[in-house]
Amino acid sequence: MPAVLLALGASLAWGVADFVGPLQGRRFGALAVLVVAQLGGLAAVSLPVVLLWRGPAGPGVLWAVPAAVSGILGLWAYYRGMVVGAISVVAPVAGVSAIIPVLVGVAFGDRPSSLQFVGMALALTGVALAAYEPGGERRIAAGVGLALVAAIGFGFYFPPMHLAGETDFLWASLVFRSTATIVIASVFLVVRPPFALKRVNIAIVALVGVGDTLGNVLFAASAGHGLVSVTSVLASLYPVVTVLLARAFLAERISRGQQLGVAGTLAGVALISVG
């Protein structure tokens, strides 16, 4: 149960951050927003590490480095996808990233129960339903290509971050955020996009980074309590939160197929939790 609660907590934190962040990205550009968010997240995770004043439990925390490279690629594609597409479409498609850690986990010996396998399949099918744009014609929605890139980036984040979290979840989160900050700041300095964020927007985006980092910490902490194939699927349910926020605050249209997808995703969570 601790693994379930921690992973679901991660999905909630990511879901909120992945709604607010891309909205700022639409106004000010993905790179500019990502730089500020990484700095905000880095400051947030550095504080408890400094207060505890202890070193990492082992070199396994370095698995967070490849997790960060893959994760920040996914996050950039995710933000860019929401510039050209609807949040309620891009977010669920990116959520199919959980397929990758499930396959990795099973390949390395994870043995989820039959009920959990059904729940994972139901959850993944649910998020995939949003790939179709609402309307009379069933066609692939705008931003789906970038959402699939995000799914790959996010998918290859989960296994190494799970390994890093098993060693020391707090230091794994610090290594992750430090690496992500270096990568995105380097790209920003090379590309030199416009930076037009006002003080209030900088504060909002910094809080987005704090929320994203909270998700990282909770997911890394779940590594010590559950299988990667289960915790990754639960943590990948952030699209449900993001889609519901988009519907509530942006009045984005959600087709019956997307509504069915959200219901299927929630049913999958229940099966995974009781399995």
Write the layout of secondary structure elements.
Elements: H1 2-28, H2 30-52, H3 64-84, H4 87-94, H5 99-107, H6 114-128, H7 144-155, H8 158-191, H9 199-222, H10 228-235, H11 238-250, H12 256-274
Helix pairs in contact: 1-2, 1-3, 1-9, 1-10, 1-11, 2-8, 2-9, 3-7, 3-8, 4-7, 4-11, 5-10, 6-12, 8-9
Description:
By secondary structure, the protein is an all-alpha fold. It has helices at 2-28, 30-52, 64-84, 87-94, 99-107, 114-128, 144-155, 158-191, 199-222, 228-235, 238-250, 256-274. Helix 1 (2-28) packs across helix 11 (238-250) and helix 4 packs antiparallel against helix 11 (238-250). The termini are close together. It has one domain (2-274). The longest helix has 34 residues, at 158-191. The mean pLDDT is 85. The chain has twelve helices and no strands.
Distance between the termini: 10 Å
- How many H/I helices? 12
Number of strands: 0
Shape: globular
Total domain units? 1
* Share in β-strands: under 5%
Major beta sheet, specifics?
A: none
**SS-based structural class?**
mainly alpha
Rounded radius of gyration (Å): 18 Å
Q: Residue share in helices?
A: over 70%
Low-confidence segments, given as residue ranges, are none
Mean pLDDT, nearest integer?
Answer: 85
Please supply descriptive tags for the structure shown above:
275 residues; mainly alpha; 77% helix; globular
